[in-house]
Write a structure and sequence with these properties.
Length: 233
């Protein structure tokens, strides 16, 4: 049996326990790890309430107009004789007028099964009132199927806290503004996008009408408020 060469044993030891080689960035022996590309950051366009700058007044909803379908024909004479909260004058209006207290709203009910709800202070209250009206009619024996609920108009108002020179707005923005003091004390400003009409009064009050969503109402206010500031007295 031959003797083990000590130098060969040392070489074998170094080969087994050799420390891992440290590769620096840029060295050819370093493996490149796949990197996920970072998507470009895009600034989102403000919507809704975020369009109103800090310190601006906020318009409050005063009326929500909505309509829906009950999907059945109604006998208005029978309903008027059955319900207690009904007003019906066939000579003046061909629909029934029904009222409830919570939420405080009024419904215009037609023989075709269409119904218009007015007076709600929010979209949720309008839908809740519509379902309550439908339930009242359903209890009278009609096969009601609540359907096709849509917000048609959101009316909001706001006091700006300063007077406005209406003649200046009418002169500069004559393509959109209508001012006829002989017929109406305020200025009507017709926005294109969103399709909202803003009534501006010299005392500093504005009324927004025609919006179908809360975002459209806030967007309209964010467009008209700088114009009112421009002609502030």
């Amino acid at each position: 049996m031959g003797l083990l060469n000590p130098m060969a044993g040392l070489a074998a030891y170094q080969g087994v326990f050799r420390p891992a080689q440290i590769c620096h960035a840029g060295s050819p022996s370093m493996e490149t790890q796949p990197t996920t590309p970072t998507p470009p950051t895009t600034q989102l366009e403000p919507t809704g309430r975020s369009r109103i700058q800090p310190g601006w007044p906020v318009p409050l909803i005063s009326n929500v107009v909505a309509n829906c379908s009950l999907n059945c024909l109604l006998d208005l004479h029978h309903i008027s004789n059955t319900a207690w909260n009904i007003t019906w004058n066939r000579r003046r209006f061909h629909g029934l007028v029904m009222r409830i207290r919570e939420p405080r709203t009024t419904a215009l009910i037609f023989a075709t099964g269409r119904m218009v709800i007015v007076g709600a202070k929010s979209e949720a209250d309008s839908r809740l009132a519509a379902r309550k009206f439908a339930r009242i009619i359903q209890k009278m024996g009609y096969r009601v199927r609540f359907d096709d609920f849509k917000i048609q108009n959101i009316v909001a108002s706001c006091g700006l806290g300063f007077s406005i020179r209406l003649e200046g707005i009418a002169a500069k923005y004559h393509h959109f503004a209508v001012l006829e003091k002989e017929l109406f004390p305020g200025l009507a400003y017709h926005l294109i996008n969103p399709k909202v009409t803003v009534l501006i009064f010299a005392g500093g009050k504005i009324v927004l009408t025609g919006a179908k969503t809360r975002d459209e109402m806030y967007e309209a206010f964010s467009l008209i408020y700088p114009i009112c500031l421009e002609f502030r007295i």
